[in-house]
Amino acid sequence: MTAAGLLSLTILYLCCLARRVEALNATATSWSTWGPYRPNLYFGVRPQVPDTLLMGLMWASGDSRSKMLSSLRDTCEQDDGMQGYGWTYYDTRLGGSQTIHDTQLQIDLDTGFIKSEDGKSWAVRITGTPKAGATNVKTSLIVHAAVEMDEFSLPKSLGCENQSLRGGGVEALCRGEIAELGHFEFQVVGDARNKALHDTAVNSVLKVSEDEIWKAKSVFTSQAKAVGGSQGQSVAVEDKPGAGNMHFIQTTFEGPFTLTLSYRTVEVAFLDPTAAESGLDSLQSAFPARADKVFPRAAPFEQDKYARFSQAIISNLLGGLGFFHGNTLVDDSQAPAYEETELNFWEDAATAMANATITQTVPLTLLSHTPSRPFFPRGFLWDEGFHLLPVLEWDLDLAISVLQSWFNLIDTDGWIGREQILGPEARSRVPPAFQVQYTHYANPPTLLLLLPPLLAKLTGASRYTGHPSTHLSTPASATALLRDLYPRVARHYAWFRRTQAGNFTSAYPRPAGAADGHGFRWRGRTPQHTLTSGLDDYPRANPPHPGELHLDALAWVGAAADALRQVAAFLGEEGDEVLYAGHVEAAKKGLEVVHWDGERYCDATVEGGQFARVCHEGYLSLFPLLLGLMDAEHPNLGKVLDLVGDEARLWSPFGLRSLSAQDENYGEGEDYWRGAVWVNLNVLAVRRLRELGLEPGKSSREPTAVQKRATALAAELRERVVNTVFASWEKTGFFWEQYKDKTGEGSHSRAFTGWTACVVLLLGLQFDKTTGERGDDATRSPQ
Ligand code: 6A9
Questions:
Q1: DSSP letter at 469?
Q2: Which segments of 127-272 does DSSP mark as H helices, in order?
């Protein structure tokens, strides 16, 4: 070995050692350590610790070995015959209960997860209830557990032994040790009433490699196939307990059953089946009152069915929280074509992309809610800003730790990837063409917009009835938090302005008075898509032009600047406060000079050498309103409200349409953002219209006519949107990605409890509809 080689080995060793020590110091657990943070699985548990213990539950028909192998349920899938699944009550801090209606296998499953306050123990109680009328229902349950090797392949241990007490008692016991978790144990405990068909089998698979560790189903299936037919009719796979890094504990039942999986670090006791059961019972009975307190319901949504609705929404939003760890694919080639300055820039960019070197980043970590467990079980930047709106009400600590996790991903340039596909497990759900993130691509900065409401909660300026914040309740700690976040968010904002700037050189004709800071442009568009804007197929200038200016990009800059202005003011950063206030004014000026065509707000482009506006009425036209850049006295407000309330354009029986029914593109092509009702932006619309109605008038105390209209629209829109999501949930058992403007039916992805969950924020809004005057808000802060 060369001296250099020896040296680098030594360095590697020393840094392992340093890592190891750091990890040992970090064994402190808290309520947040463990949870069902693998939302892509029907039930999967892991700690918020990288390279660690991954656990989960699979189930299948217990009729025969071949049926078992062909019906194995593991990852949430669209088409495996579930008639609804989800959390009926769930709190990230405490636990909750998920019901799974497996119509194909004729069984209802319940996974009740509960954890101790110190985070050192938890249990999941799995109950199976055959569907009414179904006889001889045999179900095979497979608990799986695996330890990851850490990045230096340091040994981690896990061993299981079969206790095999049929019909009750402990069925299996596993022990292990991982630096971050210390010594731990978990056990599977049966119930005396269970009719177990075979002895519980503990099946160990030795040395499953790093890229297999998360594939419980495929590892199990190939293992089962490898041991082959020697087992005859037996459903259980091979009974071979022992040390290994992946274990399966399988039990097959006939009829109803209960099985409890309990975990503990060895210094505390197990949550045994009795403790788990009573803990879950008290969680369940306390949950409705808590949900009602945080999300009060006002007329006409007082009935109990809306209470169950709001509980299901918040539970499933929270139940979609995932902890992700792994590398991601990035194109940071900064190819000249990515400047997008030439005509046909998207073709040049595509060529450059095809030739670019893709980098695998170092492993990154993210704690994030997810748009949908079966479809999009990973982090999406602008979605998370919506997810955190209800979470901010529910649990401030949780919202803060998610925000911190996202802001930690902001790189030294200020960039943050739009879609976080970390590690092979997350990657396995995304076609290769969509895996790579580009360092010149942006996405709406919704997370920045959360800072003012967060600040208001931290300082007590706005009402907070969620979990009492445990360590941020003093002004000093609020300041410390914002001081910590501020440089990163400011960097991200500066990155956005710099990289998504519109071109105001003499190269393109611009309206008089338009200058730098008055216009921005999403990079990464093609004739059909502007994925970076979040409004994928919303119609824009066609063909695209390097001189384009996008209305929403400018509105996001203006709103983000206003958010930063408020943080700067709180922190006493006067210079920054003035700077950001100037950016807000510039954005407002740009809206009028560049984007207003006399009737509506539009995109702008260059056409035949001339400045031209591109007007497709829809959500895009509403951004100045939605993002708080128009006040009640704004001269264009009346026309914007005309558009909102026009049945022939945006106003549908089920909420605001994404694209006007009169637009030539309405319902055309992919028909994604071309008419369907999206809940996230409808919620912003209700909230903003309502605020406009409540704004104190400059000249009189009475609301103006336009304010009364805003209030009336808000009140009516609120009811329509809630009714739409509710009716569809009641009928299908699912929340949906979007709703059809013609029928109100849910469409695209189901089990979409991402931003659709924001509907819960509408339940408590009160309006006095008889007078059209200012209403009161059950969720408003005391003045
Ligand atoms: C592509 C296909 C299984 C599209 O909710 C996440 C995003 C939003 O941010 C965006 O505004 N959704 C909206 O227009 C879903 C996008 C999913 C892209 C995945 C790969 C995977 O097929």
A1: P
A2: 216-227
pLDDT digits (tens, 9 = 90+) for 421-445: 999 999 999 999 899 999 999 999 9
Catalytic one of 536, 599, 719, 777: 536
| Best mutation site among 76, 376, 749 for ligand 1 pocket (most ligand atoms within 8 Å of CB) | 376
Tell me which residues have their CB closer than 6 angstroms to ligand 1.
Answer: 371, 375-376, 380, 382-383, 430-431, 434, 534, 536, 754
Q: Which residue, among 185, 146, 188, 180, has the nearest Cα to 164 in the 3D structure?
A: 188
Span of 415-419, 481-485, 765-769 with lowest mean pLDDT:
765-769
Distance CA 184, CA 249 (A): 17
Residue pair 184/177 in contact by the 8 Å Cβ criterion: yes
What pLDDT band is residue 14 in, cutting at 50, 70 and 90?
Answer: very low
Pocket mutation for ligand 1, best pick of 375, 380, 738 (most atoms within 8 Å of C-beta): 380
Cβ burial 298-333 (10 Å sphere, 16+ → b, else e) = beebeeeebbbbbbbbbbbbbbbbbbbbbbbbbbbb
Please list, in sequence order, all residues whose beta carbon lies within 8 angstroms of the beta carbon of residue 22, skipping any fewer than 6 positions away.
Answer: none
Residue 448 DSSP one-character state? H
Please report the pLDDT score of residue 459 as a whole number.
87
- The ipTM of this complex is 0.97
CA dihedral 533, 539, 542, 543 (to 10 degrees): 30
Ligand 1 centroid – CA 633 distance (Å): 37
Strands in 34-35's sheet, in edge-to-edge order, are: 34-35, 44-47, 53-61, 138-147, 246-254, 201-205
Alpha carbon nearest to ligand 1 atom 3, residue: 375
Q: Whose CA is nearest to atom 11 of ligand 1?
A: 534
d(Cα 318, Cα 397) in Å, to the nearest integer? 13
**Rg of the chain, C-alpha, whole Å:** 28
> Following CA atoms 19, 25, 31, 37 in sequence, which dihedral angle do they give, to the nearest 10 degrees?
10
Enter the pTM of the model. 0.93
- Note the pLDDT of residue 193: 83
**For the residues of 566-625, what is the DSSP string, one character each?**
HHHHHHT-HHHHHHHHHHHHHHHHHIIIIIB-SSSB-EEEEETTEEEEE---BHHHHHHH
Pick the residue whose CA is nearest to atom 21 on ligand 1. 430
Which residue among 238, 537, 617, 737 is the active-site one? 737
Task: Name the pLDDT band for 21 (thresholds 50, 70, 90).
Answer: very low
* N-terminal to C-terminal alpha carbon distance within the chain: 73
